[in-house]
Amino acid sequence: MTIKKQVAVLGGGSFGTVLANIAASNGYEVRLWVRDADQALRINSEGANATYHPELKLSDNITADDNLASVVAESQYILVATPSIIFEEVISRLEPLISPSVTVISCTKGIKPEPFRTMTDIINQHLGHIIGNRIGALSGPNLAKEIAEEKVAGTVIASENESINMEIKSMLSSKTFKVFSSQDTQGVELAGALKNIYAICCGIAHAKLVGENALGFIVTRSMAEMSRFAVAKGANPITFLGLAGMGDLMATCTSKLSRNFQLGELIAEDLSLIAAKEKVGQVAEGARTLEVVYHEANKMNVSMPLVNSLYKILYSDSSSDQLIQDLLDHPNEVDVEFTYKEKKL
Asked: Which of 37, 78, 270, 316 is the most buried (most CB within 10 A)?
């Protein structure tokens, strides 16, 4: 009899649930960690996560549990899909619970401040001495509701360990979910986190009825800012032409399923950030990422006019009408960077 490989998925939200279901449908034994015992009981008894995906019938290979130690015990893979605000707390709790053979994958799009760290930086900081380079990040245009409905989607697994990329491809590929690989973990993670900022910008612009040309203008300037910042952090700008970059940016900046896009629309109606967050309901990571990136970009002297404008709107009571005007008023820039060779003297 073949022994099923065990996978722990930490976070029973929208994305964690669909990842758990894909892995379970591929024959893996999946334990889903949720923080509420009642939610775990409902998932196990109903065979569905009614809070996020009531329409999705979960595989029998999934068991939900609120006990973290039980969930990760004997798991060969740990996929972390919690909100970024609790990510480090969860990772730190894993240290006494895991073995050196475990692979830990971040499925969370966010950045932590003081000091500036990506999610894999946090994994490496707390667990690198145990698991070495068995670390990776998953990111892409992955609106969970569409994945749950088995609409076609793609994602990127990024790790410097190529065997990890192959293993995660095998675990998460399905007839409608295509997994690509990358070794630029920094670029893939920064793309996934930064695009949430610009989804808020596009939500504001859409609500202002600025037109399709203006939205195209904003999306391409967003890409310029994202790649400029990421290169300053050591990432490869070419990564931003792929699924984790342009693919995720387009999906998040044009979809009403995006929580950050929804947040932007509400900000355009002159709701406060607190009121807009409450109305969206689920976590919108963009506002939190904006704070971190704003301060880091200014520290590194990286030009990010959209970031600066949105920061003033969300945190300094500037009018949302100012977003487009600030972009127009910014000094002229080169359209596409990283394409010019230095002239030989």
From this structure: 78
Over 60: is that where the pLDDT of 193 sits?
yes
Residue 319 DSSP class:
-
Q: Based on the domain organization, do 172 and 221 belong to the same domain?
A: no
Parent domain of 83:
6-183
Q: Which residues contact 77 (CB under 8 A, 6 or more apart)?
A: 5, 6, 7, 8, 28, 102, 103, 104, 105, 167, 168, 171
Q: Is residue 267 located within the same domain as residue 288?
A: yes
Tell me what the pLDDT averaged over the chain comes to: 92
The residues annotated with a catalytic role in the active site are 195
Number of domains observed in the structure of the chain: 2
pLDDT value for 338? 67
Summarize the confidence of residues 317-343 as an average pLDDT. Answer: 76
Q: Give the domain CATH number at 97.
A: 3.40.50.720
Q: Which residues pair with 153 in a beta bridge?
A: 177
